[in-house]
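User: Okay, second chain of the day. Same drill as before: sequence in, structure tokens out.
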Amino acid sequence: MSEINVFNRRVFIKDLVIISIIVALPFLFYLYLLVPEVKIWKTSFFTFDSRYYQDVSVFAWAAFTKILTLFFLSLWFVTCKHWWRMAIVIPIIIETYKLMVIINDETYYVDKYEVIWAIPLVIPIIIF
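Assistant: Same drill. Structure tokens below.
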């Protein structure tokens, strides 16, 4: 087998894995439907109390939305070969802040101040 065919096979397998992830992620988003619509979710492994959210399923929906966006942006960053790929880090930082705000129940303003908090991390990326 020639070296070109081996390289093409590796590229094909890598592309197949990436395509499989892209196709599977939207279906994984709907895992939040498996979470019960109760205020306190008790299992044999953990107990989860949705203090700020209406119920646990609303928290799961908000978290899965941010996680899915973060996965797609991260996949785009890893697979991008263009010179502007560092610009993708900016929305990744903002989505990470949004996910931290969702997990931290004490913050009452979701999706409001994340851009301001991300500025110290974004400015070096823009400059360099």
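The chain has one domain: 29-127.

User: Thanks, on to the next one.
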